[in-house]
Amino acid sequence: MDYLFAEGNGRVITGKDKIFGISTLAKEAVARDGRENVINATIGALIDDQGELIVLSSMIDVLKEMKPAEFAEYAPIAGIPEYLEILPRAVFGDYRPDGYIEACATPGGTGTIRNTISCYSRYGDSILTSNWHWSPYNIIATEIGRKVETYEMFNEQDQLNLKGFEEKIREILARQESIVIIFNAPAHNPTGYTPSDAEWDEIVAILRRCGAGGKKITMLLDIAYIDFAGDSVKARQFLPKFGNLPENILVITGFSASKGFTFYGLRTGAMLCVTPNSEIAAEFKRVTSFASRGSWSNCVRVGQLALARVFNDEALLKKVFVERKAYEDLLSARCDAFRDAAAEAGLKTCPFSGGFFVTVPCENDDAVNEELFKDNIFGIAIGGGVRIAISAISEEACRKVPAKLAAAIQTVNG
Ligand SMILES: Cc1ncc(COP(=O)(O)O)c(C=O)c1O
224 CB under 6 A from ligand 1? Predict the structure, then answer.
């Protein structure tokens, strides 16, 4: 890659944004053929059946009551005290893992990923995640001089490939002093996969086994979709399994208010550590605050304040949860509709149970996706498959897309 004036520093900066390009095509199709004749499954946000962004009005009401100074004032680097106070409850609910917990505000879940990599890996290190993953992980890692390595997420029986996960951790730890693992669940992006209880147990057992030699393991639980993984209370039940781990295993939970509280653009999130060692927890606070100061400085104040107000007012919290429940159900209905239609059409998908996306593995994914354009259906080819944002399309569309996708795969791949 050549640069005119800029320095590449190992980064591949093409300037091409695939999602933006396809969503432009979808918008052109809407202008040409009308909204009702276009299925735009590119958007990673919850969209209603009329094509409008869903925004929790109960959260907006809280924002509207804020005073100018509450908007304008800086927040402390690590977050405002009332936000830090409610975070363990907001993130873990009734399922708080045992250990020392410290928190640092971040601009969305993205900030947690950046700070975790910057604070807990060395320059040049490999960060581990599954082959199916949210592509910005690569950008975030290479931007700060690290790279991403992957293991196959599913085995031939379409189960979580825990053997491959363990092998890859061991392989990396054989050449690195430590490892950062990014594990996105429940309701993984882009597959919609949620590990079972037994799988979570085995994941924790793997971490224990791989850490037995004393090397440092940082397990980042990217829970960006936890509030849309079916039932948001049950979705948290696995969290206590990540308490009481040995000292050389640091658990970091990446909280994002983008989806769960529809604060996408308000850049509100946090990273919370869980460790049996109070000094490691104190260090977490220190190093993550430093990393924040050296990148975005402080985070949006009103986002933090709004969450603190909601979690400190039972009536308000109930209102938000009741409002959100309707949207959780809307998404679950879309998910069920897609599953039934896929079964009927004989369409193989990655195993899924919730979340914003479903992924259909296929060869020639770009060509398959382009074939769908002919039916005014717009997904994203993600390398090895097509990702459909069920968060952005109606239940009716979820019933339609699988047969069209099966036909497109047949046309392209025979
Ligand atoms: C898997 C995953 N992690 C983290 C994020 C971070 O989102 P945000 O920074 O908007 O909170 C996203 C957003 O799409 C995501 O898909």
Answer: yes
* 256 C-beta closer than 6 A to ligand 1: yes
Q: What's the Rg (C-alpha) of the chain?
A: 21
Give the SS3 label for residue 197: helix
Residue 387's SS3 state is strand
Pocket of ligand 1 contains residue 258 by CB under 6 Å: yes
DSSP per-residue string spanning 223-276: -TTGGGSSSTTGGGTTGGGGSS--TTEEEEEEEEHHHHTS-GGG--EEEEEEES
Q: Each residue of 224-234: pLDDT tens digit?
A: 999 999 888 99
Protein residue with least CA distance to atom 6, ligand 1: 109
Query: Which atom number of ligand 1 is nearest to the Cα of residue 356?
Result: 16
Nearest in space to 381 (alpha carbons), one of 24, 21, 18, 20: 18
pLDDT for 2 equals 79
**CA 253 / ligand 1 centre spacing (Å):** 13
pTM, 2 dp: 0.97
Query: By C-alpha distance, which of 337, 330, 332, 352 is closest to 398?
Result: 337
